[in-house]
Amino acid sequence: METETSPNIPTESHGMNGTDKGRAAIKTQFLTTKEKFHELLDSGGKGPNDDKASDDAAPKETAEDSLEEPQEKKFKVDPDEQERRKKQNSKRIRGQNKSRPHMKPTSYDNRRLCPSIIQERETKCVYGDKCKFIHDVAEYMALKPADVGEHCYLYDTFGKCHYGLSCRFARAHISADLKNLANEERVKAMEGRTPVRNSLDKDLQWRLRKKVVPFTASDAYMKTVFKGGHKAGEGWKKAATAENVDNCCSAVVHSQCSEGEKPQTTDNEGTEVSQENLALVKTIGPLTDADVIKLRQCEKKQVDFKDKLYLAPLTTCGNLPFRRICKRFGADITCGEMAMCTNLLQGQSSEWALLKRHESEDLFGVQVEGCFPDTMTRCAELLNNKIDVDFVDINSGCPIDLVYKKGGGCGLMTRTNKFEQIIRGMNSVLDVPLTVKIRTGVQEKANIAHKLIPEMKKWGVSMITLHGRSREQRYTKSADWDYINTCSQLASPIPLFGNGDILSYYDAMKARETEVSGIMLARGALIKPWVFTEIKERRDWDISSSERLDVLRDFTHYGLEHWGSDTQGLEKTRNFLLEWLSFMCRYIPVGLLEQVPQRINERPPYYMGRDYLESLMASQHVGDWIKISEMLLGPVPKNFNFLPKHKANAYK
Predict the structure, then answer these.
(1) Do 578 and 644 touch, CB atoms closer than 8 A?
(2) Which of 256, 509, 537, 618 is deepest in the core (most CB within 10 A)?
(3) Residue of 101, 71, 39, 23 whose CA lies nearest to 619
(4) Closest alpha carbon to 253 in 263, 261, 224
């Protein structure tokens, strides 16, 4: 259901009836209490309609009373114990569940069928009796969990499901004699098509692990960095000076010889030139590899970032299936999840999986994190040679302690010498634009981005993304768009994208009143991925619960295609679906809002949806998210356990 509404200009006291700051304003007929809300969900939507907050039989509650949760029973606590608990709570890491239970998808499928049988190989299993997998098909079929559905998305899309008997939708493509069927016409139509690129091949992985991959350009750059007494950046500055020297036959360099120093060489016109400066002279001579490989800035691949909608690189939730959903809704630029450069150089499969690119991602980049010039430059050279991307992004905005304490993420903003070496080094080995994502600073009231941006222009970045919060703020309080506007003026003519608190087309319009070149969306896209459509069509979309369920169903289809349709892939898809639902449950339907638009940092009170599914999707209880996943992926395993990675820290 789609409706067009004009946004009401929110006031400073935007909240419940303008009095309860931090709470979303919802129409009173939909408000309810915590007990009635969970009673409805537990009953499966079979309760009477008059169970809503407007029930005439029950004593009427005011809007303020309906928002309050019942107070917990207070126990008498020893003062020392109270002080100890207070200290524990103060040390608790905000924004993440550090000690959450982690179940590997393989633990849900301990007795698996041997790949040689799944793939129907003509030769027997090379491991013979030592193979840890099942070879008896009848035994496996007796242990295998029941199929989830009648139709296999992989079979319908590609003509053949490569998971064969292990597929949880196997009845759609398994014959009576337990053979894997194929739709030859569909298979032929899909020949030569590569839906996903940037996979790590086994040969490259082996060479990375053995450290036999050459990094010629990176090693050459690092020699210039540490040339001349290991002074940071001194060698690079000399090399940068060389690039500004005209490439002509009669180039002359006037040396400033120190007292007592004798000239080592004389040029054609008799000018004395030292051996050190001679290396900087550009002459016409034999063609070398450096002449062929090294590109000038103007010769690199050009990307038009202007007025684009950029889906931020999102850890955990910004996976390939989610990016496909956002592309469908109108995202222009997509970027892979943050990858650690050291893990990429070591050939870790899990880290390389973050670089995968779907064919629908027409403007795609990867984001890398690191804190040393040598590893970051080598990583850039590796990516430049081995994968297909349109740009490479440096993460210098990550607030996580694990990254920051090593000097990466936000730590780079305070280590300008290293930051410069990293940017210049990566630029020297890349054929595609290099972009940087930063925050306003590290401390809350000590912004430093405006000092860094003019320097980064000199260092050669092609685009800057600025999140309008400091590291200390994380995701609390509002993003500082006035400061983003100031920084965008400093960055000109380099494009600067603003990021922070965009949840509606109204927020996007306000952001575009500044001088930013484009908008980056992060949490807003997780809460409502159709925000890209709203921005492009300049309207509020009152999307129905059934339409939202269809979006989730498409995500599960893409997940099964990406991670697999066997038990392991299905449970991995479920896990990522639940992580996404921990954000999506914060969405409040437009038709229920007293005041449009919803603000990203406003907490939704307990409310009844217009149908049972809408109420279920509004629940912030993990058990209700699991119910939604079971609608799409079947019942969870007996030993299933889940706790979301991210807490709703922004509400505090």
Answers:
(1) yes
(2) 618
(3) 39
(4) 263
Read off the pLDDT of each residue in 460-470 and give the average, rounded to a whole number. Answer: 94
Distance, CA of 521 to CA of 581 (rounded, Å): 17
Per-residue buried b or exposed e for 367-394, using 16+ beta carbons within 10 Å of the residue's own CB: bbbbbbbbbbbbbbbbbbebbebbbbbb
Partners of 272 in the β-ladder: 266
Interval 268-315: pLDDT, tens: 443 443 444 434 444 555 655 545 555 555 566 788 899 999 999 999
For residues 197-219, give the mean pLDDT.
95
Count of Cβ atoms closer than 10 Å to residue 106 Cβ? 12
- Report CA 469 to chain centroid distance, whole Å: 18
Distance from C-alpha of 18 to C-alpha of 24, rounded to nearest angstrom: 10
Residue 398: active-site member:
yes
Q: What pLDDT digit, counting tens, does each position of 336-362 carry?
A: 999 999 999 999 999 999 999 999 999
Q: Which residue has the tokens 């002509």?
A: 248
Q: Are 425 and 463 in contact (CB under 8 A)?
A: no
Residue 639 has φ and ψ, to the nearest 5°, of: -95, 25
Cβ-based neighbours of 76, under 8 Å, separated by 6 or more: none
**CA dist., res. 214 & res. 207, Å (int):** 10
Q: Nearest-CA neighbor of 420 among 237, 280, 298?
A: 237
217 in Cβ contact with 428 (< 8 Å): yes
Q: Is the pLDDT confidence value at 57 over 60?
A: no
Instruction: Using the CB atoms, write b or e for 131-148: b if 16+ within 10 Å.
Output: eeebbeeeebeeebeeeb
Q: What is the pLDDT of residue 80?
A: 58
- Which of 167, 326, 371, 398 is catalytic? The answer is 398
Helix (H) or strand (E) holding 434: strand 434-439
At residue 62, the pLDDT reads: 41
Return phi, psi of residue 67, to 5°.
-80, -20
In this prediction, residues 99-114 reach a mean pLDDT of 72
Per-residue confidence band for 47, with pLDDT thresholds at 50, 70 and 90: low
pLDDT at 602: 87
In the prediction, which pLDDT does 123 show? 86
Whether the full predicted model's pTM is greater than 0.85, yes or no, is no
> What is the spatial distance between Cα 319 and Cα 365, in angstroms, rounded to a whole number?
13
Higher pLDDT, 234 or 590: 590
| pLDDT tens track for 135-149 | 999 999 998 999 999
Answer for the pair 345, 375: CB distance below 8 angstroms, yes or no. Answer: yes
**CA–CA dist 233, 210 (Å, integer):** 30
- d(C-alpha 455, C-alpha 423), whole Å: 11
Provide the token pair at 142.
């007796």
DSSP state string for 250-296:
T------PPTTPPP-EE-TTS-EE-HHHHTT-----S--HHHHH---
- The values of phi and psi at residue 439, to 5°, are -110, 180
3-state secondary structure of 16: strand
Q: What angle do CA 12, 15, 21 make, to 5 degrees?
A: 75
User: What average pLDDT score do residues 92-104 get?
Assistant: 56
